[in-house]
TrEMBL record, chains A, B:
The modification 4-aspartylphosphate is found at residue 61. It comes from Emticicia soli. This is Response regulator. Residues 145-210 form the HTH luxR-type domain. Residues 10-126 form the Response regulatory domain.
Amino acid sequence: MSYQNTNPIKISLVEDDNIIREGFVMLLNENQGFRVVSAYNNCEDFLRNVQTDKPNVVLMDIELPGMNGIEGIERTKKIYPHAQIIVVTVYENDDLVFKALCAGAGGYLTKNMPSQRLIEAIREIMGGGAPMSTNIARLVVASFQKNHNSPLSSRETEVLELLSRGKSYTNIAEGLFIDKETVRTHIKNIYWKLEVHSKAEAIEKAMKEKLI
Amino acid sequence: MSYQNTNPIKISLVEDDNIIREGFVMLLNENQGFRVVSAYNNCEDFLRNVQTDKPNVVLMDIELPGMNGIEGIERTKKIYPHAQIIVVTVYENDDLVFKALCAGAGGYLTKNMPSQRLIEAIREIMGGGAPMSTNIARLVVASFQKNHNSPLSSRETEVLELLSRGKSYTNIAEGLFIDKETVRTHIKNIYWKLEVHSKAEAIEKAMKEKLI
DNA sequence: GTAAATACACCCAAATTGGGTGAGATTCAG
DNA sequence: CTGAATCTCACCCAATTTGGGTGTATTTAC
């Protein structure tokens, strides 16, 4: 599949650093397959024009004057969901990564990448992928992994899992084909092991320690 | 960083197809930086030897005779957590991908990749990354994204979010600095909008439709 | 064979939940 | 500017849920 012989990929940039922004414009426009249709130093201006710019891909910074990038991603997805958004930032902070992805980012790159990586990333996201820097990919995958040293038995974990989905003791008992009293015993033991005294505390602690 | 001048990366294979397994062995051993220390056609044999094989990286198939790969990943992580596990399979099924990652896989490749991608992936995972096929990465990232056409208002979403963490009405009211009665009203409206009649149903539906 | 895990029983009181109905204040789009 | 949606609070009621206590029996794993 070659993009050279078809319509160029339309790109919008949102980046407040003039040097970097202009650098990206030049880098991308050099490439036959790409066309930078707009470049802004803030989200507000970008959002006002996104529906006329109609970009295929948006490269979005996070730290911006005025509205931040996370909010910007959310709003973009609301008014022009067709756009694929790649975050390009210096921040490798866990929290920010997940917030960006939850808000609708389709990729996440850190600025210390070689510039060629940017080109690849745009091709990747247009080809149905989700370009991420090495460390980001690891962060994302690690977020799925459970704690392999759980103090809870597998049955207890099962019970807590159902409890965390809002099920009542009765519900859980039915789901596991055991008596409600047995569920209660399990939950008492879970509370004792986790040193908590309520559903909410148990779920919070279990989430934090990746037990469920 | 060159692996050629240091200790080779030790690799174990778990793959029941003889042709593919032997193909991987040859491909990897051709490479100076790698050494295949063992290759099995089932998980059971692998698990018996992993502590003596001491692989850095394990390439694991999912569909296997006897114990399946997901179970295999879990057990491997229990008895030899040091190993980095890359799933190599034909299955691109959502459920399987997430189960594998939850179980402890650090990467996920589909078998239709060019063989060179396997080499890259092993280097990637040893370098702190999480190698994934294009479609898999998209699946994983998409799993974070919320539905941008939620029928719920932002306040209602906030309430449902707290409810899904096991909080009681009282808890939620305190957390949002509003009255318990207001929380009740929100929840009644949530139930009406989602056409459900209980906490568990609301959470289930909200999760399914990615409202929270 | 001992410890952990799993399962069940009964007591009790406080808290939670779901449903109904109504209503004032604010915000936002047409 | 107006009407719809949202956010806020109030009071009624009954059934269910929850957390804590204590005790027991069977199975499983090391």
